[in-house]
Each structure stands twice: as C-alpha cells, then as structure tokens.
Amino acid sequence: NDECNKIGIDFIVADFYGTKKDTSFQDQALFVSKANIMIGMHGAGLNMFHFLPFNSVVVEIHRGTNMQYNSRNFVSHVREGAYLSMEATMQGKNIQKEPIWTNLKQAIEKWKSLGC
User: What are phi and psi of 85, to 5 degrees?
Assistant: First the structure.
C-alpha cells in the first residue's frame, strides 16, 4: 500500500468474506467496476473481473500449481486490457510479498501503456 501511494496509485483491498461476506453481489460488482487492476489468487473470486472497465489488467496468482491456461483464455475478453500470471513464492504457509509487488509494478506499467 505504501509503495503504491509513493507512485500515486490508490491501493484498495476488496475482500468479500469474513465480516464483509454479506456484501451484495451488486455492491461487489460496482466496487470492481471502479478498479483498473485486479490482483488475486487463482479461484472463483477473480471471476469478478467481468465487471472491470475496458483497458484493465488482471494478475492471477498461482500457488504450487502450473499456470492455468484456461484462466488466460477466459480473462482474454477484458477488451484491450491484459492478463498477467505469476507463481506465488511461499514462505511456510504465507506468500512472500516482494514477488507480488514486482508483478503489481508490472501490471501498473502495463496499465499505463494501455493509455490510461
């Protein structure tokens, strides 16, 4: 979050579970529709990318699995946007943050290159 603030990017975490598990589908879709970059673990939660605006970037994180080519094909309908995939680097049961930040910087640069 601090790193994003340094380069003028708002970093907002969307978590629709736990205390926010009762967030309506409409509110979730509205929230995502205001994003430019979506980054998350491989899974059903990334399906919200359907509500991203054109020229968006999706970064899918895989943990201990091969890249899912189906995901790349599925996300490719994000018009004029981009799909990036990365393998998570694990440290015990936690994901190391630095590799994710590196990929997030790539996503920001890709988003900027789309003329946004």
Answer: -130, 145
Q: What is d(CA 72, CA 93) in angstroms, rounded to the nearest whole number? A: 26
Neighbours of 31 (CB within 10 A): 15
SS3 24: coil
Coil, helix or strand at residue 96: coil
Rg (CA), the chain: 14
Alpha-carbon dihedral sign for residues 113, 79, 48, 52: positive
Whats the size of the chain, residue-wise?
Answer: 116
Please count the other Cβ atoms lying within 10 Å of the Cβ belonging to residue 52.
Answer: 21
* For the chain, the helix, strand and coil percentages under 3-state DSSP, each to the nearest 5: 40, 20, 40
Number of H helices, E strands in the chain: 4, 5
- Which tens digits make up the pLDDT trace of 5-61? 787 888 887 777 777 778 888 998 998 898 888 888 877 778 888 888 888 888 888
CB 59: neighbour CB atoms within 10 A? 21
